[in-house]
Amino acid sequence: MPSDSTRKASTRWGSVSLHAMETEAFERLADRCLGRVADWLEEFDPDELDYATMDGVIQLEFPDGTRFVLNRQAGSSQMWFAAGARAWHYDWREETGTWHDDRDGHELFENVARAVSEKLGRTVSL
Questions:
Q1: Which DSSP state fits 75?
Q2: Closest by alpha carbon to 58, among 85, 90, 81?
Q3: Mind listing the domains of the chain with CATH numbers?
Q4: For position 23, what pLDDT does the model report?
């Protein structure tokens, strides 16, 4: 029987190791993802969209009190994004070098930009 680190799970978008990647590799990729989003958020006027960072978490804060959250989930080696009543879980795809939703395959940065665009009422890109 294969060890836990080599067992595979079949998903709609291909095979993913149950321990999808080593902890250090995941944290490096997750931190790079969080850093890209934090850098992007610096461009916004804080009166329009502010944000706060904590260990492995970015909280986007809008003037009306609405909050979106992007965070790493080390236990599942995923990035999670919550916007309003919706939430998504993203797996790393080595072949594309991007994070993709584990249900329909959409890309994380495109979804963050889409959700922020909808909230602000104008198109933004990440």
A1: G
A2: 81
A3: 8-120 (3.30.920.10)
A4: 87
Rounded CA gap, 15 and 22, in Å? 16
């999808």: which residue's tokens?
20
Task: Give per-residue pLDDT as tens, 63-100.
Answer: 999 999 999 999 999 999 999 999 999 999 999 999 99
CA distances to 11, 46, 53, 57 from 37, rounded to whole Å, are 27, 15, 10, 11
In the DSSP assignment, the letter for residue 16 is E
**Hey, CA dihedral for 82, 83, 86, 88, is it positive or negative?**
negative
Structure tokens at 33: 């993802």
Helices of type H across the chain: 23-41, 108-120
**SS3 category, 111:** helix
Separation CA 30–CA 72 (nearest Å): 6
DSSP reduced 3-state for 13: coil
Whats the size of the chain, residue-wise?
126
DSSP one-letter code for 107: B
